[in-house]
Amino acid sequence: MTSVSSSILTALGAGSGIDTSSLVSSLVSATKEPRQTAITSRQTTNNARISALASASSSLDTFADALNSLLAGTGYSGTPASNDASIVAVSALPGGTPAGLPAQIVVNQLASARSLASTPVAGATSSTAVGEGQLTLTVAGKSQTITIDSTNNSYAGLAAAINNAGLGVTASVVTDTQGTRLVMKGPTGAANDISLTSVSGTDLAKFAWNGTDSATMASAGDPKDAIILLDGVEQHYAGNTIDSAIAYLRIDLNKAAPGTSVTLATTEPTTSMRDLMVEFVDAYNTLMKALNTATATGTDSSNAGVLNGESSIRDMKRQLSQIVSTQLTSTGTYKTLNDLGVSTNRDGTLSLDTTMLDKAIAADPTAITQMLNPSVKTDTNIGLAGLMDKVRTNIEKDGGPLASSQAQYKALATDLSDQLDKLDTQMADYQDQLTKVYSAMETRLSALKATQSYLEQQVALWTKSNN
């Protein structure tokens, strides 16, 4: 769209013979360009700093998140193990670290349940009627009435009613070459014996059992407790899965083996811990080298780092450098990364003395594992990932140096953009002003030329008449 000023400029030049349109454009450009260049140069630098700060923060987040994800894997924590899983298997329970390992366990007896079976009826099926009436099912002193009527009068209906009683008894219908029968199994444990007594219905009475076998219902197994010797102490349990013998350890009894001692211990991830330290130092050095490049002094501004002199990055590097001397645990011989052979170089990167690390792991693998990756983090045993989270939170906190610098540069970006808009407005006004000045000049020149032409004509007439 053509502006009023440009239209006037196009019309100029008729009186003076000067290209005033080009002259005004040159004057505006000469005034605007240096100021615009200065602002855009500051914008370029400021945008680079905003990007570099965001990159530094993102790199720190990536480092901390990767460390958390890595240490969450099972390969970086002590793993309970049994030297004979066919007899006893073990696994860790959440919330803590198994204490008291290694331990010796002997399985003298597995827990078992009361099993009952009715006499097979040849030719019967699961849908064959069993008779209507009521039975009372009792387990460990708790009873429930089992009702059989026209809606569930069958072997399958009776089994379903027992299963739905909510007393932990499992019933099923078995059909084989001998016929069809009802099979029941109660919970394991000596205290969890079951009985089924007749309340009404003559036909249902054949399924009753109250401690004595009959011609129609017999016991196929007695309820017993599991009996173990744990470090020589006899213990009884109702089931074959034990969660309370050793804190935070699940013990699964798979087979009775009187006289056979099974060792329960913790297999420490010594190789994983060594690899962890090597990878940690490498990843830390990658982050620190990037920060060093961003803050490099350089011989002049052309090769200095974009964040040269930036105080927030100096603060970040300072806080990161304190990691090696910060206590990860308050107890034991090994408390810091320095104790494991990690030291700081002059440029802020880390070095790892693997010989020193190997000696520490060999001397106390459990302590090293719990120091670097505790099963339960506490204020005094935060672990490596917890330490990085703490450092990251402190660096990125609201009102901290990093957040303040980011806010400062974002505010400057807005201000520089406003300055460019203001400059455009000022230059448009300046162009209009120049246009008016030269337009007035052209008007005066045109008037003077008209006067000159008139005078020349009069002089010519006077001269002619005098001749």
Looking at this protein, list some descriptive labels:
single chain, 467 residues, alpha+beta, 4-stranded antiparallel β-sheet
Short description:
Helices cover 43% and strands 20% of the residues. With 467 residues, it is an alpha+beta fold.
Gyration radius (Cα, Å) is: 46 Å
Q: Shape, please?
A: elongated
The average pLDDT is 86
The arrangement of helices and strands along the chain is HHEEEEEEHEEEEEEEEEHHEEHHHH
- Helical coverage, percent range: 40-55%
**Total domain modules:** 3
Query: Treating each run of at least 4 consecutive H or I residues as one helix, how many helices?
Result: 9
Secondary structure layout:
Layout: H1 4-11, H2 20-71, E1 79-82, E2 88-92, E3 103-109, E4 113-118, E5 133-139, E6 142-148, H3 155-163, E7 170-176, E8 179-188, E9 194-200, E10 217-221, E11 226-230, E12 233-237, E13 241-242, E14 249-253, E15 262-267, H4 270-294, H5 311-321, E16 342-344, E17 350-352, H6 354-363, H7 365-372, H8 383-395, H9 401-466
Antiparallel strand pairs: 1-15, 2-14, 3-11, 3-15, 4-8, 4-10, 5-6, 5-9, 7-8, 11-12, 13-14, 16-17
Describe the structure.
With 467 residues, the chain is an alpha+beta fold. It folds into 3 domains: 1-76 and 280-324 and 379-467; 79-109 and 226-267, no CATH class; 113-221, no CATH class. The protein is 43% helix and 20% strand. The protein contains 9 helices and 17 strands. A 5-stranded antiparallel beta sheet has the order 1-15-3-11-12, with no helix packed on it. A hairpin with a 2-residue loop joins strand 7 and strand 8.
